[in-house]
Specification:
The chain is an alpha+beta fold and 297 residues long. It has one helix and 17 strands. The chain has three domains: 63 residues, no CATH class; 169 residues, Sandwich (Immunoglobulin-like); 43 residues.
């Protein structure tokens, strides 16, 4: 905080928890609040809080899409405990990775471009030898613009164990191991808020058929669906948030592309000019040759 003879100036650090700043977030707005206390009777034996100023700023959440201030920057990676039988509980996890090597995982809120791929892994936390022969099948995956997997607006990625469109790809056979890997091309949702990914997975016993055959029928990502857990061997896991930056691009930035287009235009113009020059020289030479022949006659 800074002050002069007339004003107090307050600057909010990027970590809003510093200096006592409180932050509240709901589905549509973010609220930042702090309290300024000025004591004017400090030199007296009895002091009182002479001035108390509570200030508050409320912004729509989409205002923060292209700013440095992150909304909900705490990374969420949930673990769901599933009771396989009366004596065995298994943990389900959802982890988001940066590429197909599955060696570097996201552990903090990040910004990703819509043309980038997001790599997912749903796995069992199996530290019990009695569960060595159980299998995992991912039933469905979807995205929401809040941490609530039951949000009213859901972008469906995987439905009934099958991809909803060609942007979803399996990197392992679903239902034949204790983990499933896949990737999806990123997308945005109507409100442009940070996205959370959720998956519903089921645990299969050793004598059960855990695989799933899929037809060619596909549905739109923007279809709305409610996910429920059927049976005691299923659980929902979540991870996020991911900010989809519509201005972000992979590869050559737009400014570089403009430069490249300019260079292409210059080169094309030069080639065209040289071509016209050559044709003009040939035409001139032909005319001079014709005139010379007429003189000789």
């Amino acid at each position: 905080m800074e002050e002069n003879e007339m004003f107090y100036y307050l600057r909010i650090p990027r970590k809003t928890s510093e200096c006592g700043t409180e932050r509240r977030v709901n589905g549509s707005h973010i609220e930042i609040q702090n309290t300024l206390t000025v004591t004017l009777s400090k030199e007296q034996t009895i002091s009182r809080r002479d001035l108390l100023v509570v200030w508050k700023c409320v912004y729509p959440r989409h205002y923060f899409r292209n700013t440095r201030l992150r909304v909900d920057n705490e990374w969420l990676s949930s673990v769901s405990l599933v009771e396989f039988n009366s004596s065995l509980q298994l943990g389900l996890t959802l982890t988001l990775f940066t590429d197909e090597s599955y060696t570097s995982k996201y552990i903090d809120a990040i910004t990703i471009a819509p043309e980038d791929n997001l790599f997912l892994q749903v796995a069992l936390q199996n530290e019990n030898s009695f569960a060595a022969d159980v299998l995992l099948r991912v039933e469905s995956c979807w995205a929401t613009e809040s941490a609530d997997p039951q949000d009213n607006i859901q972008g469906v990625i995987l439905q009934d164990g099958c991809a909803v469109d060609e942007t979803f790809h399996w990197l392992s056979v679903n239902g034949q191991a204790q983990k499933s890997r896949c990737y999806i091309q990123m997308f945005s949702m109507p409100r442009g808020l940070p996205l959370y990914i959720h998956c519903l997975a089921n645990i299969c016993g050793p004598l059960e058929d855990c695989t799933k055959s899929c037809s060619s029928e596909q549905r739109s990502k923007r279809s709305v669906s409610r996910k429920t857990i059927d049976g005691n061997r299923a659980g929902i896991v979540s991870a996020g948030p991911l900010m989809v930056n519509q201005r972000a691009t992979s590869g050559v930035p737009p400014s570089y592309w403009a430069v490249h287009m300019t260079m292409i235009a210059i080169v094309a113009g030069s080639i065209g000019f040289l071509g016209v020059t050559v044709l003009a020289m040939r035409a001139t030479k032909a005319v001079m040759t014709y005139v010379e022949r007429l003189r000789r006659q």
